[in-house]
Amino acid sequence: MSKNGVVNSRFDYIDHFRGFVIVLMLLDHSSYYLNSIWAQSDPLDPLFPTWGQFVIRYIPYICAPGFLMMSGAMVWWSFQKRVAKGVPVMKVKWHIIQRALFLILIQVTWINASWGGFTAFKPDHLGVVATIGISMILLTPIIQLKWQYRTVIALAIFIIHAFLIEISYNTEVVWQEVLMQTFIDAGNFNKYPVLPWFALAILGSVMATGWLDIWKTDKQKIFYGLAISLPVFAAAILLRLNTDFGSIFPFLKFSHFSFFMDQKYPPSLFMNLFSFAAVVFGVTVFIAIGRVAPWLLSIFSIPGKVSLFFYGMHIAIFGVFIKRLDIFYREGDVMESLIGFVVMMLVMWPLCWWFYGVKRRSNNVLIQMI
Fold first, then answer.
1. What is the C-alpha separation between 278 and 252, in angstroms, rounded?
2. Of 107, 195, 224, 229, which sits with the fewest C-beta atoms within 10 Å of its C-beta?
């Protein structure tokens, strides 16, 4: 980053934040494989007996919104950059769609199979990576719209989704399950329905208009980041406190962790607004840290540059060594989850460094997509 605050072509804070998100996801998945609480809890409706269990589960709640918003931001930037270089619009959109189709393919092949240590091929399931891919495809028709229009579309989707999740359907009827869980509800077929997460990807593209274009200095990015995130935090909290609309799970009181544990699968309107604000605030904090102590963020740089590789590899390692070989699978607690997280970081960071070098040197299309 230059001294006057104008960003370089790589936008370090985007890589750092994306790396931070993938590291948090590693923490979440370490708990998923090692924490005995998941032997008795439903991921779609979890209960947490202690603050420690709540913290290691709740902090990674920013992961999926972070991925979708960073994806939307990079789709917008890639589109703007390529069009500015004279590449035809349709060719740029086709490039985005190709990348999106690759993500969907990776989800239904490698990622789905890796969860169980490659004991079974499971192409009949969607997940967060496929949802990112589908959202990228849906972004292409609207990516040229002004940020104001994209914002309205995203907010409209949030509100409409809050009504659509009330639709009842029969999970025993395949077409109903596939249709509803692809776009609206969460369940065995897909925990990440496209509509609410697509709206977050749209808002990521909106924020990219400010982060990567309109706001030229770090001071501007910090000011507008706070000016956007703090009021949205307040609006989300008021929505949770004062209305029955937009929330799904009940809570005991504001000071109890149940207040913040509204439904994630699929996300309620409260969770959508709160997650958006959390991501914007998080990026703002990273920009501020980058101004005064950039070395604090350096550990996130390489994972952020190869986040798909990190995602696919860490699940595969957990799946093979913990699930398939049944090594301490769901026998621990919070401490064991944290130890597993540290061990996996020691494994994944050099792996990511190695693959980042491979990616920089290679012209292979598939390697560049990972």
1. 23
2. 224
Q: Which residue has the tokens 């990516």?
A: 143
Q: Phi and psi of 349, rounded to 5°?
A: -65, -50
Amino acid, res. 123: P
- pLDDT of the residue at 45: 57
Count CB-CB contacts under 10 A for residue 188. Answer: 11
Residue 256 tokens read as 């109890």
Q: What is the tens place of the pLDDT at every residue in 187-208?
A: 999 999 999 999 999 999 999 9
Token digits of residue 214: 């309109």
Domain boundaries defined on the chain: 12-369
d(CA 163, CA 185): 11
Q: How does 295-308 read in b/e, with b if 16+ C-beta sit within 10 Å?
A: eebeebbbbbbbbb
Query: How far is 231 from 228, CA to CA, in rounded Å?
Result: 6
The one-letter amino acid at 109: T
Query: What 3 state SS string does 163-226 have?
Result: HHCCCCCCCCCHHHHHHHHHHCCCCCCCCCCHHHHHHHHHHHHHHHHHHHHHCCCHHHHHHHHH
Whole-prediction pTM: 0.92
